[in-house]
Amino acid sequence: MTTRAASPNPFLEDFAAHAAELPGAGLPWLDARRADAIKLVRAQGIPHRRIEDWKYTDLRSALDGANDLGKVASETRLRNAVQQGYEVFEFKGDAPKWVVDSFGVIGIDGTMPAASLALASSTIALRIPSNAMAGKPLGYEFSGQARLLIVVEAGAAITLLETPMGGADSFSNAGIEIVLYEGARLDHIRTASNAASAIVVEDLTVRAAAGAQYRAHFMSTGAKLSRTELHVTLEGRNAESHVSGVSVLGDGRHADVTTHIVHAAPETRSTQLFKDIAGGHSRGVYQGKITVAEGADGSDSRQTAKGLLLGQRSEIDLKPELEIYADDVKCAHGAAVGDLDIESLFYLRSRGIPEAEARALLMRAFLGDAVDEIENEDIRASVWAKVEAALIEATEATP
After folding, report:
1. Closest CA to 310 of 369, 396, 227, 373
2. Which of 64, 212, 271, 390 is the most buried (most CB within 10 A)?
3. Residue 11 pLDDT > 70
């Protein structure tokens, strides 16, 4: 991987003084992990397009070359956790063992997740006890540098509704670690409707034990720069990951979803289904990598990405990848980008449907199977409402 030394910056150089003010400061294990993380931030610098994984998303240019990642206002909100008897640790006092074992342990090999560990002034850890049944969905909102750990113990199930809160000209960088014990399930819905001038980066890392399920849907209307990076490791037999998402982009907006699913155990399953619609001068990106490790026989993985361009200035980049080191596996991937089907549009118009309405029907149908991956009807209806509003903006932005 290409690295770039960060330019001298008073804030990063004086990290020790800042670290003393962070939640949990003074805990030796946490101080050590933050110190290692800031070393990585200094060594690698802010990601840019000469780094292969960031070739479509130039964060350094979006930030105008600034390296001052820490001087941003941070805020997080967690709803419906305490009321349902879940354990919440906000890094006040000594940390319980489940926090020490998992917080800041996985997914700290890139600049942005390392920055969220080292610099987050909004930090929460959440534990769902064994066999807890899914109640009211948990709400999580964040802005600035934020860090969240979720540990779902054996047999438990929860639904997480996540929303970045970044307003105009804001910068947010969140790192979320998810640990799923045997037979646990997490349904994760992320809806991002940020200001056109916002910069939003998020890194998600998931570890799934035997029989665990991670189901996620990412809906985005983009921003000046939006990047969601997902790393899932299926560590136990029969673990599953099912991920879908839609990005609907108006003029000047950018949305990047980059995933890496690792089948590390036999008979694991994963699916990915992503749909992008780009209008005006916008850019949608999907990079999806599947790795089937040696010994992960019987793994089954499917990956599909499709894009719909509404205008000549819009762009969609799709990059699926497969790495297979095991025998007796089922793996498939596909990608396609195009315009609305002319024959379908002609058919609808021949039935008396106005062109604008016909286009809207076809776009909604294009996104339908991805949005319908959301099982909860109320949540699915809420996501559809945001998608339809974004479709209006994307259509109006395209001559």
Report:
1. 396
2. 212
3. no
